[in-house]
Amino acid sequence: MQAMAHTAWTQIAITGASSGLGRALALACARPGVTLHLAARNAARLAEAAATCQALGAATTETCLDVRDAATAEGWIAGIPHLDLLIANAGISGGTGGATEPAGQIRAIFETNVTGVLNTALPAMERMAAQPAGADGVRGRVAVVASVAAFVAAPGAAAYCASKAAVQRWAEAADATERHRGIRLHAVCPGYVRTPMTAVNEFPMPFLMDAEEAARRTLAGIAAGRTRVAFPWPTYMMARLAGALPIGLRAALAARLPAKHVTEA
């Protein structure tokens, strides 16, 4: 199923494509016959990622994009003639350890991780609804990159966890209602992935995986039609168990963790 789906996806858009998981996803999708529409804020890194994809046989377009800019994001989507798959990957992380989270950090995380996702996903869905359906009856797919953090209300990373929970639940709920238009949504919930975003973490990251492996699992889950693509299984289960702990115990444990610096995908 994965190979068949990858053959069908010839027009793919990825945000946050200049580094980390976004770059790994772009490279995993790159092959002759595919056009990758890559967007990110860092022009130099984006150009390097695009050149690598071109070397693998893909055609590319590159757009410097801040997903918080709704008008620019909508214009980017409107400029893509046909869209088989949008991967809304752009995001930022941040935490506080046991300290109070700054208001500016909270707003930045929600504006990027929630509003930024909607700024690309919503216009993409409207474009897909007007497209002819493929052989599988699907007009287009939107994959939202959330996190296993969506299942844990961690006091040390309140805004990050809440933002990922918001897009995870939105994608999963919307998938059920959008199927009648021939559109599928997928909530991608990775555990710890070795990227610049996690490089600053000063706490243990169990089952840390390379971005290339995370990209492979992401695309395999989308191709298999899974609404929730959560991996690796041990980290996902740990997150679900941690989310079931008493609130007071979670707060006590979070107070022992060092702060997480703000980083972008």
From TrEMBL:
User: What is this protein called in UniProt?
Assistant: SDR family NAD(P)-dependent oxidoreductase
The family note in this entry says:
Belongs to the short-chain dehydrogenases/reductases (SDR) family.
Lineage top rank: taxon: Bacteria
Pfam families associated with the record: adh_short
Q: Which GO terms describe its molecular function?
A: oxidoreductase activity
Q: Does the keyword Cell membrane apply?
A: no
Spell out the GO cellular component terms annotated for this protein, sorted alphabetically and separated by semicolons. membrane
* Cell cycle found in the keyword field: no
Looking up InterPro entries in the UniProt record yields:
NAD(P)-bd_dom_sf, SDR_fam
Species annotation: Teichococcus coralli
For this UniProt record, give its keywords in alphabetical order, as a comma-separated list.
Answer: Oxidoreductase
